[in-house]
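Exercise: predict the fold of this chain.
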Amino acid sequence: MHNSIDSSSNSNTASASAGSARVLSIQSHVVSGYVGNRAATFPLQLLGHEVDVINTVQFSNHTGYNQFRGQRFPADHILDLFAGLQANQLDTGYTHLLAGYMGNSENVRAVETIARQLLQTNPGLQFVLDPVMGDEGALYVPRELVALYRDVLCPLASMVTPNQFEAELLTGITIGTLDDARSACNRLHELGVPNVVITSSELKSSKGTLHLVGSELNATSGEKHQFAITFPRLDGYFTGTGDFFAALTMARHASLVASYGGRLGALARACELATATQAGIMEATQRHQQATGIAVSDSLVRGTRPSGMVRGFELRIIPSQSLITSPTKSFAAEII
C-alpha cells in the first residue's frame, strides 16, 4: 500500500530565507530561448539563491532550430574561468555546484576538477548533477560520456536528476515498473549518490501519465526514503524542461534541507514543489501554443521544423514566474 508523504505543514510559497545558497552553474547557454543556464538561473535567483555561471557552449539558440550559430567551449576555457574565480577568492563561498550539458569528455573532466577543488574548499558542498545525455531512446552526446558520468561524476555528486533514458544508461536497468525505477535509484545510491531523482518515467501500467521516482539515502544509517509522484503527460513538445526542473529541485531542496534537521523527507517535498511549478509552466506554454496557432507536427523531425514552431516550444518562464514562487498546482509524493 502506498502512503502519501505528509507535507501539509509546508506551504507552496517560497521561503528561501530558510536556506539561501550560492551556486556555481556549469552548463550550456543560448542567446534566445530557455535551455541550460538560461533555464536554470532565473528560477534559482527568484527562489532566493545567488548564481554564478560558466557556459560550456554559447549558441544563438538551441539546436532544435533549423540553424544555430556559436561556439562549443573547450575544457581549457572552462578551467581558465574557474581559475579566475580562484585568483580572486571568489570560489570560497559556493555551497552548491550545478552541472548540466557538457557535450564531450574533456568538459566532463573539467567539471570533475572543479568539483574536487570546491569540495576541498568546502567539504559540505552540494553537487547536483543533471547528466544530460539524451531522451526517449536517443543519445545526443558521445557514448563514452555514459561511463564518465557513471564512474567519475556520480561518486562526487550529492544529487542526480536523470530522465528515464539517462537513468537506464547509467544503471543498465530497463525501467518499465516502479520496482525497476526503485532498483535504478538503489544502483545510483551504490555509486555514491545520496539523493536520486528520476525525473520522468513512462511505465508499462500507465497511460497518459508520467512518474517521478525519487530516493533519499541516509548514508550513516542506511535508511532510505523512496517515493513517486504521478503527473499528467501533456500533448506537445517542450524544450528546456530537464534543465528547468533540475534547478527548481535544487533550489527547493537547498531551502528546505536545514528545516528537516537531518530527517529524511526534504527531497520528496522539494520534488513536490518543483513538479507543481513545472506542470503549471508547461500548461501555460501549451495554452500559448494553442492561442497562437502553433501546431506541433510529429511528422517533422528535429532540425526541419519551422523556426516559429520551435520558438513556441520554449517554456513560458517569465510570463509565468509567479508559478515559480507560488505554484497553484499540488502533487503528493507517495511512499513506495
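Check your answer against the key: The longest strand covers residues 50-59.
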